[in-house]
UniProtKB/TrEMBL annotation:
This is NADH dehydrogenase [ubiquinone] 1 alpha subcomplex assembly factor 4. Residues 42-72 are annotated as: Disordered. GO terms for biological process: mitochondrial respiratory chain complex I assembly. It holds the Pfam family UPF0240. PANTHER family: NADH DEHYDROGENASE [UBIQUINONE] 1 ALPHA SUBCOMPLEX ASSEMBLY FACTOR 4, UPF0240 PROTEIN. It comes from the Eukaryota. GO terms for cellular component: mitochondrion. Binds calmodulin. Interacts with NDUFAF3. Belongs to the NDUFAF4 family.
Length: 200
């Protein structure tokens, strides 16, 4: 027994029609399914393209003859090629000069200078540096050079900083132009109530 307002007859009819339509569609879809599958299976498959002649392996009986031919070609001298190889002139340079240039660069890298400025104490538990390679700066030295140049631009010129820290002039110009020190700002909360987490 159904309670509630009576259903309109149009909804009942269309609801049954949609089920009936699905049944009819299923019948047409499954009609003669086995025969259609058998027809597809029995169709001739397309033939594969023939392989390239170079990739076909040689026949088993002719392998001995092929090996002897390749050995003959490998052992045979080609007189024009041999004469061309004899006419080649190779000019080599002394490897001692290359080793000397490597030693010069190693000497330059090994040149070190003592630190001009360092932070007090061992920062972050790391060992304190005592010297750095020439042409290099620590962050503390870079910040010190920037601040001294900003405070006293007449006395701490680019040339003076380059001389003090053993830098190239172009590196010093790039340092003063492009190196921007970071700033850490801790913004305090506006009220004391903002510090506490309210229980809900």
């Amino acid at each position: 027994m159904r309670f509630g307002p009576p259903r309109s007859p149009s909804k009942a009819v269309f609801g049954n029609l949609s089920n009936m339509g699905a049944r009819v569609a299923r019948m047409f879809r499954n009609f003669n399914l086995e025969n259609r599958v058998y027809r597809e299976i029995s169709k001739e498959k397309p033939q594969a393209a023939p392989r390239h002649a170079g990739s076909v392996p040689p026949p088993a009986g002719g392998s001995v003859a092929a090996e002897t031919v390749t050995e003959d070609l490998a052992n045979k001298k080609n007189d024009p090629l041999v004469s061309l190889l004899r006419s080649v002139y190779v000019d080599s340079t002394d490897p001692a000069a290359a080793e000397m240039s490597k030693e010069d660069t190693a000497d330059k890298e090994s040149e070190r200078r003592p630190l001009k400025f360092s932070l007090p104490g061992a920062s972050y538990g790391l060992a304190e540096l005592t010297d750095v390679p020439k042409g290099k700066l620590t962050i503390a030295e870079a910040l010190k050079a920037l601040s001294s140049h900003q405070r006293h631009p007449q006395t701490m010129t680019q040339e003076k900083i380059a001389q003090d820290y053993c830098l190239d002039l172009k590196d010093t110009k790039a340092l003063l132009e492009f190196f921007v020190p970071f700033q850490v700002q801790i913004i305090p909360p506006k009220t004391e109530a903002a510090k506490q987490i309210k229980a809900s």
